[in-house]
Specification:
homodimer; about 475 residues; alpha+beta; BirA Bifunctional Protein, domain 2; Rossmann fold; Translation Initiation Factor IF3; 3 domains; five-stranded mixed beta sheet
């Protein structure tokens, strides 16, 4: 911990890895590509879970659990699905000391086994919709991995719903995209662009995929949550049929939507700076850290009872902690800045005498973020400061994103823009055109934003007529 | 749903399976031995989790996540551990389209990979204790499986701690046994006997294992949670060393403790009856179900606004739901009895006129459990009724357990007792004696209770001197 963090501007990737490890969010595990999520990182994930779970339940969803293992034959029932996932599968061939008759896949995602079960459960339109979410672990054998961003095993939620009509299923797909957008913007303080994935970027087996795309601190994009409309693809593969009101057997319409521990990588990369992590108050495991300041025993006896009283006052409504380690205040300041705690509360002999505390904001440098607050009425001041930090962090990230998003007039301009930001441009929607752009610039279509200017234009690459604008960027 | 449930007394095993499926707690999956936990069962599990998680955090533990896959070589580092788990392992041999150099085991429990990581993290006595808990899924390839009770994959929590001294580690092991006891008794309304496992029944790799043992409705025992003191076994296998205050390198002392979805099987079997499930209010996903009662449209318009007002009044402090399905009240009564909802609230035209509601307790038959309560002050009456149900369920289970626990005077008496209950008897502690009892009676030592009468006696089987009493029973 003695060394200074590698500056973000010097080596973004190194900076990221150092933060993850020094803030004790996660660690490398002895199994290639798998990570250990340490208590501080897991507490952050628990807050992500709570923020999402509350929204899922408010929109009528229930949690459930489906098996980790899926028979290999299930994956093969939906052609595009198996093509997409086959290269990344981990396969159990032996169990209980014997070779299995049929190999079992460790779930990369659960559409297939859920399709099988929904086919048993759904009989009539009265059984619909089914609105289920799972919190679990999945495995996709990735070759190049990064803590949180791309790991062979990751934690996520996967929602799986079945509906009587295409309209209902499409509405669900969009509703859950809205839930992700709301969570990202209001809890994670990450401005995201909700949009549709191009044909080549959509989920294996989906009719339409939607995504929320965020700009990281190095101006690359991170796909942060996705929501898929499957039409009747999985319903037909698994024979999920229901007796409609008209007394005829019909296939259901299904959706799925997922958000993973990758979001934590996004939070680090959007908000972090050269001092370390910077957590949005709504998700921070510790919202305020109280640092007692004293130089001798007399001051310590004077300060500590006030520190305890401050902690007690705050602990009902704030996630607060006292740092009573035997270290210098300077060490503690640096340590909690590294760990991204939004607010530091200092209590020294002077504060005790004047009946105040010092509030120091993590998101503002030095004196700019410091204020003296009377202990009377302090709870309100702390809450208000946390709310301001939350909204300022969103504002800051939005300004950065907007300052680095451009609308190219020519393909040459386009190429320059995607070197260092997002390009928003008219695009023909053609798969071949998209592949050429990727080949030439390494930028991909991140999404076709839901918000469109209207009218039509000319494709930025091939010059053919274009009905929609797309966001292009290099991506994680 | 039309058929009546198989009576508990007629075929306990069939009764159990029917409840699990009809109450929609869980379903069989297409993967042998794995189960699907349906929303109602999962909501019950979420309440179990919340009850335990709160207690874990109150005793200073933090949650974290460790990888699903463990290198085969890790398991082999602790001799007894690998011997115990080898026959039950599921093994990943291929991933990403290639054969792995070293097979990966799907975790049956995480001592080994955690031992490896703790060895990286622990440097000095200042890093101790480590108090970490995981909520995850594990796989043990069982041949004979039962929904919740014994499944190839199950959900659980596993706590793993490391300490500077043996005394601290032993105290932690016992503290967590107390936490399990407190949860079982006060939340699940299951009286349990906390005790030590015999040498042959202890966890593979443990110095001492503790357990809470409960009596099911068929008078068989269920091991419902275990807590293990490992001494320095895993510390030595994984070289978890720390620099002590005396500046010398020492091995840490570790513990682990776990409670699984098996607890749900216990809740079903302890409390359930011929009408179905009977859930303790503290864990019930729905604590009170409101059933509107009307025969015509006029009554419906009269009743429904009151039903909604009752729901609203209760919903702040009670998990409450209105059953507004187009079914008869009789159907609904049976359905919610099957699902074990502790309290039914009936609102019909008569209740509207008299400003009352009917409360009907799930745990008391017919008129005995019915009372009329004024709507004014109803919230308090409902809360009080739920508290009474909670304590009466514990009382009922305790009386049943005690009425079926006997102290045999002879081995012949012993044999008769374990045919249909628990035997509490002096036991010599000898492994061979224990094996003979098991061979002859199918009863095993469930535990050596922490509470002992003191003094000494004569072994119920071999007649040798005995220092402790043990509980013997047939077990799940």
């Amino acid at each position: 911990m003695a060394d200074k963090l590698t500056p973000r501007s010097e080596d973004y990737s190194k900076w990221y890895n150092e933060i993850v490890q020094r803030a004790e969010l996660a660690d490398y595990s002895p199994v290639r590509g798998s990570m250990v999520i340490r208590p501080y990182g897991y507490a952050l994930w628990e807050n992500v879970q709570a923020g999402l779970d509350r929204r899922f339940k408010a929109t009528g969803h229930q949690n459930a659990y489906f098996p980790l293992f899926i028979p290999m034959s299930f994956l093969q029932k939906e052609k595009e699905h198996v093509e997409g996932f086959a290269p990344e599968l981990a396969v159990v061939t032996h169990a209980g000391g014997e070779q299995l008759e049929e190999p079992l896949v460790v779930r990369p995602t659960s559409e297939t086994i859920i399709g099988y079960m929904y086919a048993q459960w759904v009989k009539s339109y009265r059984d619909l919709p089914i609105l289920i979410n799972l919190w679990n672990n999945v495995v996709r054998w990735e070759l190049r991995t990064r803590l949180f961003l791309r790991t062979a095993e990751f934690l996520w939620q996967e929602g799986h719903t079945a509906h009587a009509t295409a309209e209902e299923a499409e509405a669900e797909t969009r509703r859950m995209l809205d839930v992700y957008t709301d969570f990202a913007v209001n809890d994670a303080a990450i401005p995201v662009i909700p949009g549709r994935k191009s044909e080549s970027e959509k989920f294996a087996g989906a009719v339409r995929s939607y995504t929320i795309e965020a700009m990281m601190g190095d101006k690359k994009a991170l796909q942060s949550g996705t929501s898929h409309f499957f039409g009747q693809n999985f319903a037909k593969a698994f024979e999920i049929k229901f007796l409609g009101k008209n007394n005829e057997l019909e296939f259901v319409w299904t959706t799925s939507w997922g958000l993973s521990t990758r979001m934590i990588g996004g939070i680090i990369m959007v908000h972090g700076d050269d001092q370390g992590l910077k957590l949005p108050p709504k998700l921070a495991p510790i919202q305020a850290i109280i640092v007692p300041i004293f130089k001798n025993d007399a001051d310590q006896s004077k300060v500590m009872p006030v520190v305890e009283s401050v902690r007690k006052q705050l602990s009902d409504s704030i996630r607060v902690k006292v740092d009573d380690r035997e270290e210098t205040p300077g060490f503690k300041f640096n340590d909690w800045e590294m760990r991204g705690v939004p607010l530091r509360i200092e209590v020294g002999p002077k504060e005790v005498d004047t009946g105040t505390v010092v509030l120091a904001r993590r998101d503002l440098p030095g004196m700019e973020g410091r204020s003296f607050v009377p202990r009377v009425g302090m709870v309100e001041a702390v809450r208000s400061s946390l709310a301001t930090i939350q909204s300022d962090m969103l504002k800051c990230a939005t300004e950065f994103r907007d300052a680095n998003t451009h609308e190219p007039k020519s393909y040459d301009e386009f190429k320059a823009i995607v070197e260092d930001g997002f390009a928003r441009a008219w695009w023909c929607g053609d798969r071949q055109c998209e592949a050429e752009i990727k080949e030439e610039t390494k930028a991909t279509t991140r999404c076709i934003p839901l918000e469109q200017p209207g009218g039509s234009g000319v494709c930025i690459h091939c010059g053919k007529p274009a009905q929609e604008e797309a966001i292009f960027a290099k991506a994680y």
